[in-house]
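Cross-check.
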Amino acid sequence: MKPSAFEYVRATSVADAIDALARHEFEAKILAGGQSLVPLMNFRLAAPTVLVDTNGVDGLSYIKRTNGTLAFGAMTRQGAIEDSPIVAESCPLLLEATKLVGHRTVRNRGTIGGSIAHADPSAEYPAVLLALDGDVVVEGASGQRVIPASELFLTVCTTSIAPNELLTEVRLPVLPAGTGSAFLELNRRHGDWAIVGAVAVVTVDARGICEEARIALAGVDATPVRCHAAESVLQGEHLTEQVLAEAARQCAGAVHPGDDLHATGDYKRAMVRVFVERALRLARDRCGRIENV
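Predicted model, tokenized:
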């Protein structure tokens, strides 16, 4: 199939894009990498009457590390993130997640801002943003505002970004020394959407005691899910196999995924337990301060 008819607007600046969104609001969609939007339009699952192309906007593609924060321009390609030495050094979790996004041809076009704004609950970047307590910067006619990840995702492919606002920057914290992280997925083939995705981040002190833990899930609800109860199981503890298993059990008990074409809800819940435990073990072993427990 082909998309329904639409008006095409090629924005040349952030102000230009914001002006187009202000004029058309609910009728308009932003075209960033187009790796999700264009297929939806071709199947007529999305039918915007106005398409605002931001590929010609200068200044929205960058990776910067400043004062303990990694900042990404919204139009930064996933392929650029995959190749960035700054990302490899400062946020290996994002690098690991990026390699799970589709295939290299997809990542050469897909953008970090587009993926997060699209907010597919099975996607990798929303789960990473939520796990790391990152935030996004959006701009509209009334000015700029910052939205924390905890307030961004509302339901399937829906965020708290207003129709007349443009996502311009994604911010992630640089994690402290002694931190290990992992992103693992269950999918049918590499590059497919995650049936279950598990993000684990742990920080330990020199004694091997967990100072901070972060766990997020993809593919099990209408938004990515943060597992705060399971995190509390880990904090202040030696990360033994028993402790990791209990945290994974807490995660599985906290979610109630539905059945779909790929798996039943019960199967997904069982895989949450398996993949969280594996991700936590891998994150623990990557901390670098202690021998394996």
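The longest helix spans residues 265-285. The chain has a mean pLDDT of 94. Passed to J.P. for a second look.
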